[in-house]
Amino acid sequence: MERRDKINYYLDIAQTVAGRGTCLRRNYGAILVKNDEIISTGYTGAPRGRKNCIDLGFCRREKLNIPRGQRYELCRSVHSEANCIISAARRDMIGATMYMVGIDAKTGEIVENATSCAMCKRMIINAGIKDIVVRDTPNEYRVIKVANWVENDDSLSDELGY
Q: What tens digit of pLDDT does each residue of 112-126 get?
């Protein structure tokens, strides 16, 4: 029997966490790991006490045909990365690695080219997280250096239309 490599082990856990998500479009799971210990987990869902999209039976962004990556202020959900950060102390997040998996709610497939939104990127930077590992296929992943988000500040890009 071949033993699962450590990175895919953590991504498998993040994928399981994504299964708790309540979004009708895409559910993400995130876990924070430092010194080979899971610090916190987070999944996509409405703020505590509010109804989730699966409870309401509709997604406002989907009703309005809003493309992926746009107009997140209309979304009911708190993103998995934010929920993961909320559940951890900053002293534990400094230098940690976040493992993240996105699942398409309709197909159950892994979301291609998944990445954090601009707001989550800012939270990840401020939390002191060092790397993000994102699953692309059941066995393949990308490692994103958070320092690159700081150095290549996409909030200054003209492509955002600001």
A: 889 998 889 999 999
